[in-house]
Amino acid sequence: MVLRLGDEAPNFKAQTTEGEIDFHEFIGNSWVVLFSHPADFTPVCTTELGEVARRSKEFEERNVKVIGLSANELGDHHKWVKDINEVNKVNVGFPIIADADRTVSTKYDMLDYQDATNVDTKGIPFTVRSVFIIDPKKKIRLTLTYPASTGRNFDEIIRVIDSLQLGDKHRITTPANWKKGDDVIIHPGVTNEDAEKLFPGYKAPLPYLRLAKSPF
């Protein structure tokens, strides 16, 4: 199944380290970051989950729930969480989906078809490092896919969340390498007259490039 930006995130029920969930109920009125991991007890995944736990307040401040997924049984997940907490000096407080049968991974097209070695003992592919940012309307707003060998950049994931949330509230877009607090671009659909009302004193180095102070 090919998932595109703007599609509704497929619903599913699954067992997690925090109990059984219905994904759409889990989303509720929050934003969600769903991110997959090739397997438990792997070094890169252990650092990633530790990083997400370490930054839990940053996600909470943005009304974002995080939920991981790994292609192992639930019992393995619970054992693995102990390792993650110990080595990263954190407390993993978000759920991790047990997807040993690859049901959710298949729905979200997360399986690795590139690396022939990224398989379990039965030869079934593990996942790549997929990321889905989903808004409170349950629409997919961003997808990222990293190879299993490369850890994710969570600064970039938080940066995109900031950009999406700001764009939803104000009629703006964000330029290359934008960070929270930087100038923003006034949306092309905003007339100059409206731009002056919404963003007094904006600058226009080009007729089609209008810059304003960040509404943050």
From TrEMBL:
Q: What is this protein called?
A: Thioredoxin-like protein
Q: Which UniProt keywords apply?
A: Antioxidant, Oxidoreductase, Peroxidase, Redox-active center
NCBIfam families xref list? PRK13189.1 (NF009668)
Domain of life according to the entry: Eukaryota
Briefly state the protein's biological role. Answer: Thiol-specific peroxidase that catalyzes the reduction of hydrogen peroxide and organic hydroperoxides to water and alcohols, respectively.
Q: Where does this protein come from, organism-wise? A: Gigaspora margarita
Mind naming one GO cellular-component term on file for this protein?
Answer: cytosol
Provide the active-site residues from the annotation: 45
